[in-house]
User: Fold this.
Amino acid sequence: MVKILDLHFQDLEGTIASFLVETSEGPVLFETGPHSTFPHLEEGLKQHGYRVRDVKHVFLTHIHLDHAGAAWAMAREGAAIYLHPFGAKHMADPGKLMSSARRIYRDDMDRLWGDMQSIPEAQLRTVAHRESITVGDHTFVSWHTPGHAVHHIAWQLDGVIFTGDVAGVKLGNGPVAPPCPPPDINIEDWIESIKLIKSLNPEALYLTHFGKVDNIVDHFDDLTQGLEDWANWIREHLERGETAEEMTPKFQTWAENQLADYGVDDLGIARYNAANPPWMSVAGLIRYWKKRNE
Assistant:
């Protein structure tokens, strides 16, 4: 029912996915990946007999560039883009989003993410919590699931849920890790969102990073523990008076050692670092603790 399209981010397999679902009214897509990987998205659609212009419905979990960076290119070919109300203004006018990203990524911006252009407001479809969208013989339900991002949605199709980042990052046989970039990580909200998804009793999760997960309970137990461990590591080092610059290399080593202890090889660690850069989680969790302490 769900076809996984590997977008080969940074020429690495199994790092960022889009998901293709075929309906009686044509294909729909969950996530677009960044614009830098758009040729791989085109090729993935082609392998299943479709062109970009055949996709008239694109469902986004949130507007971070690794999930939604190519949404404008899909809209340009006629697709409607479904997303959280808080994200719509940035898709209509991505200038602030892109300038902020360029300050972070600097010379790597174009290589990593490519372009982002505005989407006409008429093609942006904002969805409420628990709203149902029917396309042909399939109905998709929007679950607002903040924590990783305030504008995050998990999309349900029958017993399947497309989780974006709320179910973490799990690559191959590696462990699940919590992506914690700024600006609006909220641990309490994230844990409540996990509880919400568990209450739906899904048969399978589809993670943008990366692929299908069947062992739902163990997966979310491990994610919750990892989220608490990462947050507490940052809190303890903040309490010691360390700066972000001092923390980042230590956290990178600590996170990579966790992966190695789990049996992840060097290539696997490179894939995890591409999908979930440790320095981003340092920045995000420092911001979380500072806001919480205020």
In short: The mean pLDDT is 95.
